[in-house]
Structures are given as C-alpha cells and as structure tokens.
Amino acid sequence: MFFKKIHKRIKVIILIILFLFVLIIGKVFYIQVISYDKLNNLAESLWSRNLPIEANRGIIYDRNGLILADNLTTTSLVLIPNQIKDKEGTAKALSEILHVSYEDMLGHVMKISSIERVHPEGRRLDFEIADKIINLNLPGVYLVKESKRYYPFDTMLSHTIGFVGIDNQGLSGLELMYNDYLTGSYGAIKYFSDAKGTRLDLSEVYEQPQNGVNITLTINSELQKSLERELDNAVIKYKPDRALGIAMNPNSGEILAIASRPNFSPSNYQDYSTEEINRNLPIWATYEPGSTFKIITLSAALEEKIVDLDNDTFTDTGGITVEGATLHCWKHGGHGLQTYLQVVENSCNPGFVNLGLKLGKETLFEYIKNFGFGSKTGIDLNGEASGIMFDINKIGDLELATTAFGQGVSVTPIQQITAVSAAINGGILYKPYIVKSLNEPETNSVIMQKEKQIVRKVISEETSEKVRYALESVVTNGTGRPAFIDGYRVGGKTGTAQKVSDGHYMVGNYIVSFMGFLPADDPQIVLYIAVDNAKGVTQYGGTIAAPIARNVLLDAISILGIEKRDGASEKKYNYLDKKYYEIPNVIGLNSKEAIKLLKNFKVEFSGTGNIITYQSPSAGERIYEGEKVRLLLTD
Amino acid sequence: MKNKKFDIVLFLTIIIICLFGIIMITSASYIWAEYKFNDPFKFTKNQSFFFLIGLFLMCYISKINYHFYYKNSNKLLLGCIILLILVLIPGIGSIRNGSRSWFGIGSFGIQPSEFTKLALIIFTAKYLENNERDMKSIKKGALPILIITMLIFGLIMLQPDFGTGTIIVMSIIGLLFIGGTKLSFFVKIGFMGLIGITSLIIMAPYRLARILSFLDPWKDPLGSGFQIIQSLYAIGPGGLFGFGFGNSRQKHFYLPEPQTDFIFSIISEEFGFLGIIIISTLFLIIIIRGFKIAINSKELFSKYLAFGIMFQLSFQTILNLMVVVGLIPVTGVTLPFLSYGGSSLLITMISMGIILNISRYQK
C-alpha cells in the first residue's frame, strides 16, 4: 500500500518533468521558427562585417532624356584594422601612396573599429592610385566602389540643379530639395567574422545597393543652351551686375529654361561665394518690374471693359499730375494723341496711370493679387522670394498710379512670367514647375508624374486674346520692335526699371527687361530676359533685353518646331528699320529680267549661260532688303 | 538475490549520448582550445579520458550490490562534508570561474560538491527507509534531513556555487515528496519561499528587475543579458535543420566557453530543431527508464536511491535547458552527459552505474 503512494507521487514527478520538456521544446520551436527572422537578422549583423558599396545617386534628365547630372564610378579605401597584422608595414605603404603622414596612417590602421576610412585622402581615388593599392595585396585593406557626381554641362543650370558634398549629399538646388529621392541606399559585400574580427572561411554575401530615384525635368536642354549662350554673350557685351532669363510653356507652367548670371561650376562650388551659389535669380531676385508690369494693368483694364484699345484715345502731354506730383512719360514731351493700342505700343506711362486711376485701387490690386503677385508661386525649387506689395490700406492715388506702370511694387521674375503666361494663355494661372516626373532607377519607368496645376482663372479668353493682340502690336510697331521675327508673330513688352538703393532711385542704374512670347495667336513659349546695370549702352529694355530675347526665340522656333504663321499684324516701318521683302520666282527667266524683279536684293550669279535654273533662297521666302540672292545660270 | 542483467537500453542510450557529447564538445571547443591552449583537441582529449574512466566505473559499479551504499552512507557523506570544508581553504582548493570549488590535480579539476550530490541522496534514501513511520510528522521526519541539507547548502554557497546548491536542495525536497511527507508541508515551504522573495523585493525593488531581466535580455545586452543573447543568436539562426555539423558561428568567440553550460545552444545551431528533438528524446529515454527502475524496485532504499538520482539528473537537465532557451535567469548549471566537465561526467556515470545495478533487482 505504501509503495502505491510512492509510485503515485513518482508518476506526478514524471508528468511535471514531461511538461517541462514540452515547455522547453516549445520555447526552442518559438526561437527557431517564430522569431527566426528577427534573431537571424540580428545574429547576421553580429557575425558579418560589411564592406559598403555606395549606390548611384539618381540621374537628372532633361525633358528629352538628356543627362544633366550623372555619376562616375570611383573607388575608396576601406581598412579593417582587425585583419591588418603588420600594422607598421601597412601604414608605411599606404602613407606613401596616398601622401598622408605615417603617423596619421598608423592611427587609422591601429584604430579600434570594425571599419575605418581614410578621409578625405582615401576617398574617390584615381585609377593609378587604386591600382597601386590593389597591387600591394595587403590583408585588411580593401577598395570599395563609390560614385561621384558628374555634371556633363558644368555650369549649365547650376543654380537650379545645385551640387553635392563629398558624401554625395545634396547641398543646394534640386540636389538638396529632392535629396531623399536621389539618395539610394548602401549595398554591401558581407563577409563573416569571428568575435575578434578575423575573417571566417564562409562565403561572402553580396547585397545590391539600391540606386536613387531618377528625376526628369521640364527643362529643354537645347533651349537652355540657347539661353545660357545668349546670357554669356550679354555678359561679355554689357558687363552687367546680374542677368537672368526664364522660358516657360504658358499652357502648363512648365519651366523650359532657367538661367542666372553670375553662375558657377557645381563640381568646384567651394571656389564661389555663398551669394553666387545660393541666389537662383529668376526665383530669388525681387525688384521693381517696370513696364513689363503694364501687361497686368492692361489685362485688368480690358477685363473690366473700361477701355477700347482701338477706339478710345489718350493725349499724352509728357506728364500727368496725381495728388500734386507729376509723373513723367519716358519720352520727353509726350506721345501726343494716341489710341490706347498706341499707348501700349509706346509704353506710355501717363496713359497707364489713367487706366490705373480708372480701375481704382481695389480692382487693380485684386487683379495683381489674382495674377499671383505678393505670394510665392510655389515652384518646386528652393529659395523662392515672395516680393513686396503696397499695403492696400496705405495706398493713395499716387501709389495706385505708379503701380499701374510698374513702379513701387517689388516682384520676382518667376511671378512675372507666370502672371504673363496667364494673361496670354486664355486667362488661366498655372503653378510653375520644373520636375516633370520621378523615375524608377533601373528601368527609368515613371513612378510619379507631375501634371499641370491650375491655380485660378484670372481673366477671360476674350480679354486674353486682346492682350495678345496688343502685345503683338508692341513688337510689330512699338518699343518691342527689336524682338520682331518675320512670319512668327512675336508678342512682348519691354521694361526699364530704376533700381532703388537706400530709399532712392539710383541714377543711371537700371534693370532692363523684355517679356516676349510666340506665336501671338497661340503662344507656345513665354520668355523673360532681364539685365541688371548694363554698362556702356543706353539702358532700355528695347535696346538690350529684346535682342537677347529675339535670339533665344529664334532658336525656340526650330527647337520647339513652331510653324510659320499667317495673319500677322503688318509692321509699320520707321526709317531705322530694315524692311523685309518676299523673294519672287525668277527660275526660267534670263539674268536681266531677274535683276529687275530682285531690285530690293543683292544678286550674285554663278555658272555660265542665260537661263536661271536655281535660286537660293527659294521663291516665297522673306529676307531683309539688300540681302543676297544667289542664282545659278545655265545655257 | 542477484538474478538479472541490467537495463541494456538505458546502458546503450547513455553511451550514445556521451559519445555525442564528446563530438559536440569537439565542434564547440576547438576554436577556443586552439586559441587558449594551442591545442584544438584539448577539451576533446580530456572529456574522452573522463568518459573512458566513467565507462569503466559505470560498468564496475553496476556490479556492486547497492546495499554497499546503505552500509557506508554515513562515511560517504562525512567524507564529502570534510572535502567541502577543505576545498574552502586557500592553498588546498583552487578558484575556477569565480568559485573556490575545485581540487586541482594536474590539469584536471575535481569538484567535491559533485560527489556530495550523490552522497546526500544515498544518505537521505537510507534515512527515509529507516524513518518510514515518522515521515508523517514534520518535526521527526522531514526537519532533521532538511537541517543537514541546509548545512551542506551553506557550505556550497561559501564557494559559492548557487547552481549545485539548488540542485542538492531540490533533490532532497523531491525525495521528501515521494517519501510520504504531507503535501501541506510543501505548500508551507512554497508559501514561506514566496513570502521571503516578496519581502526581498519590497526591501530592494531593483531585485525584481534583475530577476526579470532574462525576459528581455536586450535591456542590458553587454551585462546580464549577454550570455542569453549569445545563446539565442545560436539557437535562432539554427532554424529547423541547423547550419550543419561544425558550422556554428557563435562558437567563434561570440559565446564564451561554448563547450560547457551552453553546449545545447551550439547543438541547436548546428543541428537545428531536428537535433533538439533527438537530444530531448535521448534524455527522456534515460529519465523515463530510470524512473521505471525506481518504480519496479522491490526495496524501499533502492526505490528512494534510484528516484533521487533520476530526479536530480532530470532537475539539472531541465534547469540547464531552461537557462539556455531563456526561460529562467542564468544559474551556471551544466548539462549532464553533454557539457564539458570531468567531475560532472564521472559522477553522472557513477550514478548511472548505481541505477544499472538497481535494474538487476526488479520485480
């Protein structure tokens, strides 16, 4: 009986033991199966030493797939001090190759860390140096791939694209703004080591680096090159303090080209002052716009139907008195009796003052605000300024009057071009943008596509059409004549603004500008050029900025494939202008008849004979009076 | 009285698990051994040597009638107590791993506490048989033997060796449990223990944090959590089938002395969950067959002796495994048969010899 009791208790003990074994096996199962991933990752990071492989930074493309910011593959030195047995020898050899002092190198080699870099001498090594290090074949000395940013067009778009630092981190421009996208993640060659850092005889694991996201810009490189070239020429010619240009697609807000002078070389950004580097003038600079601002006043007046361009008239006596102050027209003595179309063509200040007063301050400033002035446009670039407006409560008639022709307000170039785009595109204000899409790094397929973004409708389609008509007229017959391109219907407006320093207008120091677009019946491009303090020349927007704009617009015609237009408003010529003539067909005629027909041109014959079999340029082309026409004669 | 052959299944299982232990000690220790002694098979050789002696002793002892221990139980325990006192004297006992619990003989070490484990079980088994009637009374039955046990526990804690001390106390409590002591007594002991632990925690709340630190070893990864984290890093990545024999990574200096307390982690790493199932099966064969021998034993003394030995072995095994898998805090107990250690292997095999001998006299 007593045995039975003992046996019962022994069986209880056996059951407890069995239960504990089940518990232990269950825990092992939990560790090995349920938390396998977690523990395996932790353990692997304990066992493995990583030789980091840098990912490529995202590539920046223009809208046509041309590379604007690329990567070059270089190598960098990585030391694993635990694996270096001959510390002195290794330090000596490396210090000689890299031109680092022996003591410094010994410090790196002796350092108690799993991975040691020699910074900056051991970074981004030249091929020859890398080759020398490889040939040493030292244990614990490794070369790993690193990539280096490369800007194939150097200074082109420098402010906009920005630049990167030694660790490929974006420091300015788009490189900074989109740094999180552009930066990839490190890959690694993992090898296993024991707790003392000695390499184990286990196979290495290669972890592919994840390259950064590519970015496609709205920039058209061909147009950008044209703009950069023209600004360079302007800098050589006029030695201005600053110069800038922007080209925009008025129907979407896409930036097609954007440039500043002075600019810089992003690979050598250390050589420039922070002002030069950081000021992306088209979005940063704020100044009095001058007459280009009259487009806003004109749009408001037309939308409010307070003026009929062709039938209403204004007599300019050379000045207009507002609240006891006389505001002069730029033309001494005034323009006399004009239609309002002529007021616009002549950029007549008193005429615009009259329009401003008719509109009243509430209405005009409402339009100014709706056109986007006084607040940032929201373009996807950093460093944008918002400009300065009059406080609406402190505006008297004088402030209203000067604002109407572009004085007393301070705006940015991007605000102006965005507003003018709205004025001529049918009245829709778009948010300007420069990043067209983000693209997957391997296939370059689109991850995120940016679409045009409407901010608001500012004026009606009819009003916009009238604005285009008036501005085309400015180029055909008015102050914008130097921008005229025969057959392509250029519209535009000049501007000459005095600069303010210490509350006074500076003498002989202007920002001259031109806002142009084409074709005037269906604008495909708006271009704004501004030159600050041009030297050795009469500073008018028409004489300096308009010719620059014309050259860029000429390039734009072929780059954007813009068709020749009919129905242009006929140009009225003054005595200074060269005239265009259409070339008649002279093929099949004899030389005398040809000379007679080509009286407006210079004629050059080649070949022998009487009959003309070929002419260049061909019939129907329009060229300047006195230009050469080549004819081929045969028997 | 001698009539039967011993339990051949138990005998073979012991041989298999010991040989497997030597193989695993080789795999786990050769990195350490090479680093420390310039001899990768240092631990393998030592363990093999003790295994051969142990095997001889086991076979020899399986032939010695267990009544021998009944007669000599007092002398055996007295001898062990004397050794336990001697080992505390500097110059005689030497310190290893922070405990003065060794007699150094050449490069080998002998731990008297290991032999005490067995001697006290023999003594208690005899005591229980002699005082069968008194076991219902706490004062006359359980208390005297508990006093002797606590005395020995005290001596061992002077070394100090908490793990061995706990095993000794627990195996005596286990013996008292089957020896007929009233259940209310164990409830009282448990209750007192609970009060003791609670008051210790109230006096110094940081103790609770320390006790519970094994639940989240990552709180102190380089201190109290270090060993258990290293153990989990071995067990976890082993997965279902392990890295394969010889391919443990944690033995490369990550897990300190991987051939001793944490050999189970290395087995898990190299053979995975499958290996753990096989090892557990081997242990359970030994444990269940051992307890069966106790149950089938005709005499009270041999029943108590067999149970005591098997309970102690099971308790030590479970204590080690629970530490290694992170179920309880680290106590520093080796895994019978598998962990490296001469005294531990010898005494385990001697104990098994006694079990085998008892198996000869079954109903």
Characterise the protein shown here.
The complex is a heterodimer of chains A (635) and B (363). Chain A has 635 residues and is of the alpha+beta class. Chain A folds into four domains: 33 residues; 167 residues, Penicillin-binding protein 2a (Domain 2); 332 residues, DD-peptidase/beta-lactamase superfamily (Beta-lactamase, 3-Layer(aba) Sandwich), CATH 3.40.710.10; 55 residues, Trypsin Inhibitor V, Chain A (2-Layer Sandwich), CATH 3.30.10. In chain A, the strands form eight sheets. In chain A, strands 2, 3, 4, 5, 8, 16 and 17 form a seven-stranded mixed beta sheet that branches. Chain A has a five-stranded antiparallel beta sheet with strand order 10-9-21-20-19, sandwiched between helices. Chain A has a three-stranded antiparallel beta sheet with strand order 1-6-7. The longest helix of chain A has 33 residues. The model of chain A has no long low-confidence stretch (mean pLDDT 86). By secondary structure, chain B is mainly α. Chain B has one domain. Chain B is built from twelve helices and three strands; from the N terminus they run αααβββααααααααα. In chain B, strands 1-2-3 form a three-stranded antiparallel beta sheet. In chain B, α1 packs antiparallel against α2, α2 packs parallel to α12 and α4 runs parallel beside α12. The longest helix of chain B is centred in the C-terminal third of the chain and has 34 residues. Chain B starts with 7 loop residues before the first helix and ends with a helix. The model of chain B has no long low-confidence stretch (mean pLDDT 88).
